[in-house]
Amino acid sequence: MLPPISSGHPDLPDRQAVETALQSVLDSPDFSGAKRLCALLEYVVRESLDGRAELIRGKTIALDVYDRGMDQDDRGLNLVKVDAGRLRRRLANYYENSGANDLTRIEIPQGGYAPIFINAEQQNTENRNPAITETQRTNLPLFAFLGVVLLAVAMTYFFVGQDGGQEVTVDTTERDTALRQAILAKSPTALQSLNLSTQARSLIFPPLDPKRLQSTLEMFERSIELDENNFGGHAGAAQISAMQAILSPQGTRRQERISAAQTYANNALQLRPEDAWTQSALAWVAFAKRNFDEANEISKRAVAIAPNDYDVLDFDALIALFTGQFERAVESSSPERHKGRTGSRFVYRNIYAVSNFYLDNYDETIDFLEQAAEMGDPVSQLSIIYQAAAHQMAGNENAAARLVDDFKQSWPDGRPDILLKWVFSDKSYADQVMEPFKAAGWSSRQTEEEPSEQIR
């Protein structure tokens, strides 16, 4: 860690520089409206400037900033932990954007709440100095490595193109190159079919938009037209058709979609039974048919075949979540397991957050749902509901009430209780989240018993 600031040190920022840096952050658009985070940042900075950095603790923040004592549930401390995580991310975003040229930077390292102050100009000099000591090297903060990240992003943009936030995988391994060459030797349309189904596979999520699902299904169907032996086209079409069935009201249309999904899955099974994507499609169709034990068994098999296939992990996490196997859902959606993914609008962070709700890890739920939204992942009725319910359960009633108000404005006729009771294997799991959501102020103005395609 860099030594504490001192006005007499020639290289480190002095008090006035830190005061200026703090005001720049507080006045920035990144912190507009974030009154609680601003109060937290100002508190820890001024405590440090006044020589009390070692006394900054979660309990002191809860008392001094939030005026909350330590009740028997430690709810005030949970609130501090959640806000500290949000503050770290918002500071990082600020210094990546509007604060990129600030001469003095404020960081709050993981594991504590006392800030450190970085002289950006001095840090840049050290980065260019080949004689930098190992001790100094280990203390360089996140910003020293941002150049590498930005370069990687630029390279991804150059090779992949602008894809609207969806992940597009570019296979560069020798095996994949040889595979594509072999398919091309068969016929150009076969390779075109493979490329189309691969692209469509990255567009399955977010799933709660019927028009988007239909356009993705058409891509898979087109890939089958180009090459009827492309198992990936059949598997993907099975996944989408099953998703449409899950979101359809009870009746003929749902049964038609279930039947279509099963046909596509059976075709994939005939073409490539050993492939994880085929098994994942079979599992999702079984889930749509509400054969939950079968769905879990097949999905676990798919993961065993390809434990690093992100799409297979996404569907496994969903099946585990909605059938009450929350520990497995956390395992399959763990950010550590998905750290190799690039881009945004992924579903795994939301699944991870929701699964933690059922394990009573409310701070994890709040933290990761907020992180997912900040990173561009889908924001839906369900993500807002679980965020509000987690706040309510953690004792953050005001935050929960604000989210309920946001929900009412965005989805005045929303019926998440209906959808949740339908997708969960046990309706009590729906009640477990809807009860705190209702306690925070939500109530339904309708009475339906079936999910609708308008739920999204």
Shape: globular
How many whole angstroms does the radius of gyration measure?
25 Å
CATH architecture of the domain at 174-319: Alpha Horseshoe
Strand order of the largest sheet: 1-2
User: Could you give me the name of the CATH homologous superfamily of the domain at 174-319?
Assistant: Tetratricopeptide repeat domain
Question: Could you please describe the fold and organization of this structure?
Answer:
With 456 residues, the chain is mainly α. Helix content is 62%, strand content 2%. Helix 11 (231-246) packs antiparallel against helix 12 (252-271) and helix 19 crosses helix 22 (427-439). The longest helix is centred in the N-terminal third of the chain and has 22 residues, at 75-96. Mean pLDDT is 79; it is low at 1-12, 125-172 and 446-456.
In short:
The protein is mostly helical. It has 22 helices and two strands.
List its salient traits:
about 450 residues, mainly alpha, Serine Threonine Protein Phosphatase 5, Tetratricopeptide repeat, two-stranded antiparallel ribbon, 2 strands, disordered N terminus
Compile the SSE list and pairings.
Elements: H1 15-26, H2 35-49, H3 58-64, H4 75-96, E1 104-107, E2 116-119, H5 120-128, H6 134-138, H7 146-160, H8 174-186, H9 188-201, H10 210-226, H11 231-246, H12 252-271, H13 276-288, H14 292-305, H15 310-322, H16 326-333, H17 348-358, H18 362-374, H19 381-393, H20 397-410, H21 416-423, H22 427-439
Antiparallel strand pairs: 1-2
